[in-house]
Amino acid sequence: SFPKRCVACGKAAAGAMPCCSVCKLVHYCSRECQSMHWSAGHKAACKEAKKWLSLGLLNHNRAAVMYVYNWMGNDEFFELQRQTQKAIVDEIVGGVHGLAVPVNLSVTLQTYPPRTFAAVQMEAPTNSSSKPRCAHTLLGNMAMYPCFSFAPVGMPGAPLRDEDNAMLLAMLQMACRLVTSAIATCISKSRMRVVPGPFICCGGIASDLFWRKAVCRITLNTPIETMRNRTWYFKPDIQLVCGYALVRACDRVFGIEMASATITRIEAMNNQLHTTAPSEYLSREAWRKNILQTMDRQGVKADIDAHCASKAKKDKLRGGWQQVKKEFLEAALAFTDVVRKHLIEYTANMAGGSIVPTTLAQHLRVSEAEMTRVKEELAALDPQYPPDIQRLINRPHTQGHCEEVEGALVTLADGRKESELSITFKTQLEDYSGTDGSGGAAISFPFP
Prior knowledge:
Layout: H1 31-52, H2 62-68, H3 74-95, E1 101-112, E2 115-125, E3 137-139, E4 142-152, H4 166-190, E5 194-196, E6 199-202, H5 208-211, E7 215-221, E8 229-236, H6 238-253, H7 256-266, H8 284-298, H9 301-315, H10 320-346, H11 360-364, H12 368-381, H13 387-394, H14 403-406, E9 409-411, E10 417-419, H15 420-428, E11 432-435, E12 441-446
Parallel strand pairs: 1-5, 1-6, 6-8, 7-12
Antiparallel strand pairs: 1-2, 2-4, 3-4, 7-8, 9-10, 11-12
Helix pairs in contact: 3-4, 6-7, 6-8, 6-10, 8-10, 9-10
């Protein structure tokens, strides 16, 4: 809950205050203020804001929708977010019996014109048979919190581009900072009872955090030296990888037009995959089954089979359309090979720094013998990074100040310079203290 005030003049309500009859988000103290606000821009934004309130990341999050449309200021929004986060953490601790509750975090980037925001979602186990009060939905025994942390990662007008440019990298760095803040919030507000798992799931363009080998680092203020510096990693969603694998295979085998058509269908993905078991993440056969399942569920199988037949006829292939289909599947699997190879390299030092000190093999619940077999398989396959991903990887981590994304530099009282967006993060989020050269971040708070 939050106090009602006139969105036009800022006057607080002593009693009842009428709201917009369409979006039901903003309140007015008078007809004059409502008329003025309608003409100043509410007319254009009202129905769109109502739409966001009923779908996607902002579903039922009135404060976030109002913040997106500048109907709520920084101080009020982030204060409400901090209160909500505390209520969520308390709810999770109270809903599960045990010393620590493992939760899953994921991050996505979304543009709500004219600005790009990052959202951290949370899944938490619960013993309740009904939906917990703060949760949006209950799936099985998992309570879903789609907008645990939400913040802008760029200034108004800064475009979110899926290419290796300075603006994208600056937004990714801000997203990494938001995730680190969310992790610290979970741990500090629960006194180490709500603990995010070592991998942050990343979807859409946020998956570039995985390719950049970005990490979230938190420094725990504890006398146990080996527990002080903890690290979290990013891992792309299996469904996302399958979609990208199909699109890249279409481009490689059939050309860009077929790839573009496939992207349109993949973007609306809501699949039931063959397997999402952690132990299958490094299995080539599991990836093959998931890719085939994705094709069937998305209705692209018929189109791909038709293109295979057409290409076989055009090239006069003796193996017919089956030969082309085999080539297509191998092209898709080649991308998953790159993902597997990159994950193993990325987490080489995982045992020494993750919140639960385990190797990648232990986390995925596979034996060291199986891990050795996978490494030997990948060495034989020798997967190569696609050119666009290789360019992204090669970009230096130190980008410097990007004014279009971070805003102008402001000189602080002590003489230091900080960007406008960085000041928002430092003053509104969980005790943020800085970023390191790898794109990760460090937050220090008292350890219970």
